[in-house]
Amino acid sequence: DGPGYEPADDDVAGLLREAVPELERFGLVLGIENHDRLPAARLAALVDAADSERVGICLDTVNSFGSCEGPAEVVAVLAPHTVNLHLKDFTIRRLAHNMGFELTGTPAGRGRLRIPWLLDAVARYGRCTTAILELWPPPAETPAATIRREQAWVGESLAALRPHLTP
Question: In sequence order, what are the residues at sequence separation of 6 or more whose Cβ sits closer than 8 angstroms to the Cβ of residue 146?
Fold first, then answer.
């Protein structure tokens, strides 16, 4: 997707099928990241339409909130297809005026993401061999302060994740 480019599902399925021979030729696996335009079931159908182990899902634990789907729903549908995991923890809080909510990134282990459950759910299918720690620190007063915050979050996140990772 991009500005002015939101292809229909049938078009995407065709593009994926066309890509499979090249993916096989180079020994690559294509991971399609879930996001706010397509619900998890439609993404799973696109992967199924490609009909190849060379096409899977890059599962981001927060992106599908934009299509009104939380992690439990998304993981239930996309875990069997997941080839890469974007591990992103988050919190949801009600705004002070009680008229809506704010979804904000947190260091791994400090938010609402049930990390052991997520890792177990994805590991059950054996396709996902990589994970990326993705952080969404809110911007600080300066770029340098934002970088310091992100560095601190990396350390805290790695400490929280170590007990759940296997070499």
Answer: 137, 139, 140
Q: Spell out a b/e string for 44-61, using b for 16 or more CB atoms within 10 Å of the CB, else e.
A: bebbebbebebbbbbbbb
In a domain, 2, yes or no: no
Enter the pTM of the model: 0.91
- Tokens 């260091």 belong to which residue? 107
Distance CA 132, CA 84 (A): 8
Q: What are phi and psi of 104, to 5 degrees?
A: -135, 145
Domain region containing 47? 9-164
Listed in sequence order, the DSSP H helices in the chain are 9-26, 40-50, 71-78, 115-123, 143-161
- Residue 112 located in a structural domain: yes
pLDDT single digits (tens) 123-155:
999 999 999 999 999 999 999 999 999 999 999
Q: What are phi and psi of 21, to 5 degrees?
A: -60, -40
| Total Cβ atoms within 10 A of residue 141 | 7
Q: How many domains does the chain have?
A: 1
Nearest to 129 by CA among 40, 24, 59: 59
pLDDT tens-digit series, residues 66-75? 999 999 999 9
Q: What is the CATH number of the domain that holds 43?
A: 3.20.20.150
